[in-house]
Amino acid sequence: MSYLAAGIMAAGGSTEEMPSVLAVPIDELVIGTIAFFVVFGVLAKVALPNIKKTLAARTEAIEGGIRKAEEAQAEAQKALEEYRAALASAREEAAAIRTQAQADRAAIVEEARSEARAAAAAVTAQAEAQLALERSQAQAQLTRQVGDVAMVLAGKIVGQSLTDDARVSATVDAFLADLESQAGSTGAMS
Amino acid sequence: MSGAILAAGGLDCHFENAANPCGFPAPGAEIFFFNDIVRFDVLGQSVGFNKVTILIVIAVVAVLGFFLYAFRSPKLVPRGAQNVGEVGYTFIRDGIARDVIGKEGDRFVPYLFSFFFLVWAFNFLAIVPGAQFPITSVFAIPVAFALIVYFTWVPLGIYRQGFLGFFKNMLFPPGVPKPMYILLAPIELISNIIVRPFTHAVRLFANMFAGHLLIATFSIAAFYLLSFTIVGMLGSIASFTLTIALTAFELLIQALQAYIFTLLTAVYISGALHAEH
Question: Smallest CA–CA separation between A69 and chain B, in Å?
Answer without folding.
Answer: 19
